[in-house]
Amino acid sequence: MAFTNRVFSGIKPSGDLHLGNYLGAIRRFVPLQQQYECIYCVVDMHAITVWQDPADLRRRTYEIAAAYIAAGVDPKNHIIFNQSQVAEHAELAWVFNCVARMGWMARMTQFKDKAGKNSENVSLGLFAYPSLMAADILLYKATHVPVGEDQKQHLELARDIAAKFNHDFAPSIAANGYGEEFFPQPEPVITGPATRVMSLRDGTKKMSKSESGSDMATIYLMDDADTITRKIKKAKTDADALPSEAKGLENRAEAANLVGIYAALSDRSVEAVLAEFGGQGFGTFKPALAELAVSVLGPQAAEMRRLVADPGEIEAILRQGADRARELAARTMTEVHDIVGFIR
Ligand code: ATP
Ligand code: MG
C-alpha cells in the first residue's frame, strides 16, 4: 500500500529551547512544508518522563509552539498541537508497549545516559519513552521524521515496532481489508550541518535542555544579543587556525562544532564556510559567528516573545491543531482496534 507523504516531529517542553533544538529540528521543519503535509507537536507527555513543575510545563509548551510559529511553521496549512490533547497517543503507545520487547528498550543509549547509575529509580515512562515516540509518528502514518542525530536510534526502534506490528497482525490486517502493510516505515530526515550541536564548553557533549552543565555551555533561543556574543567568544576552542577543508576538522570537536553552527545558521555547507575562513584564527571567526547568530536568533526570539505575551493566539492554534490531529488519530485507532481484536 502506498502511504501519503507526511512529516511528524516534536520537541519536549522539558527545559528552555537551545540552539541545538533550533538547528537540529525547528529550522528544518520549515522547508519541509513545501513538500509534505506536516504535523509538529509539543510532546508534553514525553516531558513528564522526568519531573516537571506544572507551571513550567505550561509555560514551556507555549514557548515551543511560539518557536515553531516564529520560525515559519504555518499552523493553517499544517498542524501544530500539544500531544496530551490527543489521547490516542497514549492509547497507541499502550498497544506498542505490548509489541515492543524489553530488550529493545534496554538497548537505548538515551535511556542509559539519562538513567545513569540511577536506573532503578527513574520513571517507568522514561524506559517506555521510545514506544510513545513510535506511537506519535505512526498514529499519523507519518513517513518522514526530521530530528537531530541523537534521535536516530529511537527512530530505528519505531521502524522495528511498525514492522513487528505489521508482521504479528498480518492475517488480521488482511482480513480487515487494511492492505498488506498497515504502518509505514518512517524515515529519519537528518541532513545538513549541525545535526548534533555540541556544548560550547565540551565538544564531546551534546547541547541539551536538561543537562547544560554550565550556562556558558548552551545558547538558549531566548538569550539576548550580549549573552549570545559572550557565550560564543568564551566558547572552548583549540589554538590552531581553521583548516581550508572539512577533513582538517577531524579530531577538532570544538572547531567542527562552531563551523557546523556557522554553516547551518547561514544555510551554507561546511566546505563553503571553510573556503571563506580557512587559514584564519578564532579571533576572526568567533566575532563573525556571534554576529551571524545574533542576526538569526534575535528576530526569532523577538517574535517568540511577542507570541507568548498574548497566549490567546497560541491557545487557539493549539486547540484547532489538536482537533485536526484527533481526526486523523481517531481513524488510525479505529483500524488498530479492529486489527488487535478490540470490540468497538
Ligand atoms: P532533553 O535534554 O530534555 O532530552 P533535548 O535538548 O535533547 O532535551 P528534545 O526535546 O529531546 O531536546 O529533542 C527535540 C529535538 O531537538 C529532537 O529532534 C532532537 O534530535 C533535537 N536536538 C536536541 N538536542 C540537539 C542538539 N544538540 N543538536 C541537534 N539537534 C538536537
Ligand atoms: Mg533529548
Give your account of this protein's structure.
This protein has a domain at 209-306: Orthogonal Bundle (Tyrosyl-Transfer RNA Synthetase). The relative contact order is 0.15. It has helices at 19-32, 44-47, 54-71, 88-97, 102-106, 109-115, 124-138, 152-168, 170-175, 225-233, 253-265, 270-277, 282-309, 311-340, and strands at 6-11, 37-42, 79-82, 144-146, 187-189. The strands form 2 sheets. It has a 3-stranded parallel β-sheet. A two-stranded parallel sheet has the order 4-5. The two termini are 25 Å apart. The protein contains 14 helices and 5 strands. It is mainly alpha-helical. Adenosine-5'-triphosphate binds next to helix 1.
User: Per CATH, which architecture of the domain at 209-306?
Assistant: Orthogonal Bundle
Order of helices and strands: EHEHHEHHHHEHHEHHHHH
Low confidence ranges: none
Strand order of the largest sheet: 1-2-3
Q: Beta-strand level of the residues, as a percent range?
A: 5-15%
Share of helical residues? 40-55%
Overall shape: it is globular
How many strands? 5
Cα(first) to Cα(last) distance is 25 Å
Structure classification? mainly alpha
At the fold tier of CATH, the topology name of the domain at 209-306 is: Tyrosyl-Transfer RNA Synthetase
Mean pLDDT: 96
Bound molecules: adenosine-5'-triphosphate, magnesium ion
CATH class annotation of the domain at 209-306: Mainly Alpha
Largest sheet, strands/sense/barrel: 3 strands, parallel
CATH superfamily of the domain at 209-306: Tyrosyl-Transfer RNA Synthetase
Number of continuous helical runs:
14
> C-alpha Rg, in Å?
21 Å
